[in-house]
Amino acid sequence: MPRARYAQNKNYYVALGRQIAGVRQSKSKMTQEDLALKVSLTRTSIINIEKGRQQLLVHTLVDIATALGVAVTELLPPSGDVAHLLRDVPKKGRDWVLNSAVMASKGR
């Protein structure tokens, strides 16, 4: 049962992991190893979290946010972010959808 539930939410965890990796790299300039040490996880766990292969408990998400020096909300994927839904779409199609969304938001 837990496996099936993960499959339903996999794209969200991929987007969450991408957010965490982005914040870790851009704002804190921290390595995966440094983050792992600060939150008492292994580097492999951090890799799996950032790849969306490992689900997070809420307290672990809070620990990661604290270690990175950001609010938990900065680690959550934007609600309008569709990139994670397009993960398995070929690049050409993904680019077309994302460009169309940008154009539509600009009223063109």
3D architecture notes:
With 108 residues, this protein is mainly alpha-helical. The protein has two domains: 2-76, lambda repressor-like DNA-binding domains (434 Repressor (Amino-terminal Domain)); 78-108, no CATH class. Helices cover 63% and strands 0% of the residues. It is built from five helices and no strands. Helix 2 crosses helix 3 (43-50). It is globular and about 45 Å long. The protein starts with a helix and ends with a helix. The mean pLDDT is 83.
Percent of residues in helices comes to: 55-70%
CATH 4th-level superfamily of the largest domain: lambda repressor-like DNA-binding domains
- Helix-strand pattern: HHHHH
Mean pLDDT: 83
In CATH's first tier, which class of the largest domain applies? Mainly Alpha
- Number of β-strand runs: 0
Mass-distribution shape:
globular
Looking at the structure, the CATH topology of the largest domain is: 434 Repressor (Amino-terminal Domain)
Could you say which structural class the secondary elements and strand pairing correspond to? Answer: mainly alpha
Strand content: under 5%
CA-atom Rg in angstroms: 15 Å
What is the total domain count?
2
What is the terminal separation in angstroms? 45 Å
* CATH architecture name of the largest domain: Orthogonal Bundle
Largest sheet: none
Concise structural overview:
The chain has 108 residues and is mainly α.
